[in-house]
Design a protein that fits this description.
GO terms for molecular function: alpha-1,2-mannosyltransferase activity. By secondary structure, the chain is α/β, with parallel strands linked by helices. The protein contains 20 helices and 13 strands. It is 36% helix and 14% strand. The chain starts with a strand and ends with a helix.
Length: 559
């Protein structure tokens, strides 16, 4: 029986830890609902399913398991800020992993036991994650304060040619947004789903915490009815049709079921995390970039366990895992929770202390489960304004299909020009040899699909992306694409040039038109006016002046 081993001491066996927390909770975890179900087709959080007894039981189980295994350690305190280091294998290789976080022994033990108890129950828990089998769609989450971003996401998605259904998981809605949800979104095959309605049974069973900004992402993916999910932050616009990501046989999704996208920064994750997660090896800082979690691609059947582990990290995020996973470095929040969950479970599986659920497997498919972290690094586009510094507008992220093609072409080219065996060289840990001093052979294809640390051994590969297909997403992390705020100068949606003329939100449109064959920004303005200039919108006070301002700017900039 595997044991939880802390360096310098031995803790209780995993099953005893779980038994203890169940005993203290009155055994409600297994008595409140049926845990013997192996169905993966229970439906999902959707108005037509909210009365489902099975689904009510699922949400009770979901929040019970999270609450019973929650981290009870004191809030994590990090005295300093992790360094903001641009991620490149060649430069990050010499950067030591920051070790700023110190925990008291009793708090470290509480983390360790909480994590071990949650992972121990995952094979059973994940075996009946609810979703509608063989469905694919786009998911986002929003609330009353930023619903206008979701409107832009839907409009741009349809202009890009996507035919996938869209689910908008909402925590609250303003009256005008309720009207949009009921009368406009259905025309775009988009559905607004109020999350709390699906949680009513769970909230009657036990008080639920008030979820904060970053915690909603994992909840939204779990709540979606789709099996295959493209999750997008509400401010992340797919300017190229994302549907081919899910085509039959399309890589890397076919072989992995999980695709993530990089941020600009090197990891500042605390080494303590790897100890708490099961005494896993600490990877080198150069192993991979931090995750940019505004775009995630999941097969919830194959990755039910890693998705639920990510939900655990986010449930315990604000005071515990968020500061541990970044040590106050760039992008602190949920971004390291998703891919890291998959890496942890794979590490535990390789050690023989975790057996993944296999109910998702189909005859002839076998275990095709991995992860693809997109290798093309992001870039920023912005706008210059008179007497003001340059303003970043959005981050560009790659088409993962094109990214995979380019990487595989580079691997093939490297294989053809070397006589060294094409296997992945031993990977570096914090105590090992820096990747820059290794003489790694060109890795094979499977290595890229199963080991996220690959780039620390492949800095010599040259990726030749097809410029016509490489960019798929504009993530508006700078200026939010929310036209309900166009009359607010702080939104920066509208700026003026030297002669007092209105400026485009995206400076220099020529390359955009060349890249995508259309004026993406002009389309967004036109389609947005088609929403906000509808007669029925005039009666909402928060939209006063929006249509007139949009027409004024559009008439000067685009006509």
């Amino acid at each position: 029986m595997p044991k939880l081993v802390l360096r310098g001491r031995i803790a209780l066996p995993v099953f005893l830890v779980l038994a203890l927390v169940l005993l203290l909770s009155g055994h409600r975890l297994y008595s409140t609902y049926n845990t013997n179900s192996s169905s993966s087709n229970l439906g999902a959080l959707h108005p037509s399913h909210t009365g489902s007894h099975e689904l009510d039981n699922w949400w009770v189980e979901f929040f019970d398991r999270l609450a019973i295994t929650r981290v009870t350690a004191r809030p994590v305190y990090v005295p300093d800020k992790g360094p903001d280091v641009d991620w490149k294998p060649s430069t990050a290789a010499s950067v030591p992993r920051p070790d700023l976080l110190k925990l008291r022994a009793d708090d470290e033990l509480k983390f360790y036991q909480s994590h071990g108890a949650f992972v121990h129950q995952l094979p059973l828990f994940a075996s009946h994650l609810p979703f509608e089998a063989n469905t694919t769609g786009i998911v986002t989450t929003t609330g009353a304060q930023n619903f206008g971003q979701a409107v832009s996401l839907v409009l741009v998605t349809r202009r890009a040619g996507s035919r996938l259904p869209i689910q908008i998981i909402v925590d609250s809605l303003a009256p005008w947004a309720e009207l949009v949800c009921s009368s406009i979104m259905p025309r775009f095959n988009a559905t607004c789903i109020p999350a709390q309605k699906g949680w009513e049974a769970a909230s009657r069973h036990r008080p639920l915490p008030k979820f904060r900004r970053f915690q909603w992402k994992a909840l939204a993916i779990v709540a979606s009815s789709f099996q295959n999910v493209l999750f997008l932050d509400a401010d992340c616009l797919p300017v190229r049709n994302p549907d081919p990501i899910f085509d039959d046989g399309a890589e890397p999704f076919t072989s992995t079921g999980l695709i993530t996208f990089p941020d600009f920064w090197a990891s500042t994750m605390s080494p303590l995390f790897y100890k708490i997660a099961g005494d896993l090896d600490v990877p080198a800082v150069a192993a991979r970039a931090t995750l940019e979690s505004g775009i995630l691609v999941y097969d919830k059947a194959r990755h039910a366990d890693s998705l639920l582990l990510a939900a655990y990290y986010n449930y315990n995020g604000p005071e515990h895992y968020y500061p541990m996973l970044s040590q106050h470095g760039a992008g602190e929040g949920d971004e390291e929770t998703f891919l890291q969950a998959g890496l942890v479970l794979e590490g535990l599986r390789q050690r023989g202390v975790y057996r993944q659920p296999t109910t998702w497997m189909t005859p002839g498919v076998g275990v095709k489960k991995g992860y693809w972290d997109v290798k093309m690094t992001p870039s920023v586009w912005g706008r210059s304004e008179p007497e003001k510094k340059w303003t970043g507008i959005f981050i560009m992220q790659a088409d993962p299909v094109e990214d995979y093609r380019a990487v595989m072409a580079a691997v093939e080219k490297a294989q053809q020009t070397t006589t060294t065996p094409t296997t992945l060289a031993p990977l570096t840990t914090e105590t090992g040899t820096p990747p820059s001093q290794q003489t790694a052979a060109p890795p094979d294809e499977d290595a890229f699909l199963t080991d996220s640390r690959l780039l620390s051994t492949s800095a010599n590969l040259t990726f030749e992306h097809d410029s016509r297909r490489r960019v798929m997403f504009f993530h508006h992390s700078g200026v939010k694409p929310d036209f309900t705020r166009i009359t607010n100068t702080k939104s920066k949606l509208v700026a003026k040039g030297n002669r007092g003329q209105f400026l485009r939100m995206r400076e220099g449109p020529g390359w955009v038109i060349d890249e995508f064959g259309r004026d993406v920004e002009k389309e967004l303005w036109e389609d947005s006016m088609g929403v906000y200039c509808r007669p029925e919108m005039a009666g909402f006070g928060e939209l006063r002046g929006v249509c007139g301002r949009m027409r004024e700017v559009y008439g000067q900039v685009f006509v």
